[in-house]
Amino acid sequence: MHRNHLVHRAATACLFCLALLVTLGCPGATPPPETTPAEDDSDCPVLGTCGELLEAILPSGEPACGCQSMEIVATSGASTGVYCIPPERVSELPSGCSFAQLGASNPCDDDQVPFRCPLGRRAPDFQGRQLSFGFETRVKLLAGSTPDVCGQGQYVRSDGFSNRVLNEPPPIAEPAPDAGLKGLRKAAGTDPFRFRALKEPREVPRRNAMDGNLAQFGADGYTEQNDPSKRYETDAIRWRDAPGVSGVFPFQSSAYQGDFVTFVTAGDNTCWCRFEVEVQYVPRNPNATGTGLKLVDGFRCVGIDL
């Protein structure tokens, strides 16, 4: 028999023996370790990674909080959900907000007025004199959550310009979330997002402010229900904001850049989003421009609606 033919038969026999050993095992041999299939994270809302699974319903008993998802909505041409304000405070509403005719679906008390505010870029006019960008934070809580016991709020650092002159940012809102070194959790096995939250002096730091290798943010309020800017609903929390540059006329160029962190913290069931806002206005252009809103980071932050 030809030598090459013998080699071929021997190789074939060896392959058959190896296949049999893999299938039946060998006496005295150590079985291969069991492997766990990789988790399919194709539907994960947080930058392609998943954290622990959420409980669908919180245990009964003591008030508790669980955040299922957070969304930042800034759809150009659309409006926020409904908020409520006493008639004597209507003058406090930002330019562009309008009263809502709701009839039986009105969620406001009898002594309050329902209203909505615009989302997205808004150019300055002679009435409001503000270049702004409206967004709404919408939080979906686990069934049975008590919003009051959730850790919640917003941090910001920003720059505003009018006629190319850097403006002083306004004082931060009250009550403010805690100051100090902060860490917001991310997916399992991933380092948290750490930053330094300032509270004194009560000013918003510049957009690129740093403390060593940590970004500095100013505490920006939204820690509790506070109509006309934040509402608690059944298994949900909403709040609205319209940052920008105030005191500018339509014949003045202006620009605003902001870096925001919004959060609802509840142990493992935590949600947060970090996003940037940029809006610009050039005289004789009827519309504001700029990159708008961009997601930077987050955990259970389900997306940005532009």
What would your notes on this structure say?
This protein is mainly beta and 306 residues long. The chain is built from 1 helix and 19 strands. The protein has one helix at 3-24, and strands spanning 67-73, 83-85, 98-99, 113-116, 120-122, 130-141, 151-162, 165-167, 180-184, 193-198, 210-211, 214-219, 230-233, 236-241, 244-246, 254-265, 271-281, 289-299, 301-305. The strands form 3 sheets. Strands 7, 8, 9, 10, 11, 12, 16, 17 and 18 form a 9-stranded mixed sheet that branches. A hairpin with a 2-residue loop joins strand 7 (151-162) and strand 8 (165-167).
How would you sum up this structure in a few lines?
The protein has 306 residues and is mainly β.
Helix content estimate = under 10%
Q: Strand fraction band?
A: 35-45%
User: Regions with pLDDT < 50 over 5+ consecutive residues?
Assistant: 1-57
Estimated radius of gyration = 27 Å
User: Which structural class best describes the helix and strand composition?
Assistant: mainly beta
- What is the typical, i.e. mean, pLDDT? 79
Number of helices: 1
Give the N-terminus to C-terminus distance in angstroms. Answer: 76 Å
Helix-strand topology string:
HEEEEEEEEEEEEEEEEEEE
Largest sheet: 9 strands, mixed
List how many beta strands DSSP finds: 19
The coarse silhouette is: globular
Strand and helix map with partners:
Elements: H1 3-24, E1 67-73, E2 83-85, E3 98-99, E4 113-116, E5 120-122, E6 130-141, E7 151-162, E8 165-167, E9 180-184, E10 193-198, E11 210-211, E12 214-219, E13 230-233, E14 236-241, E15 244-246, E16 254-265, E17 271-281, E18 289-299, E19 301-305
Parallel strand pairs: 1-19, 10-12
Antiparallel strand pairs: 1-6, 2-4, 3-4, 5-6, 6-14, 6-15, 7-8, 7-12, 7-16, 9-10, 11-12, 13-14, 16-17, 17-18
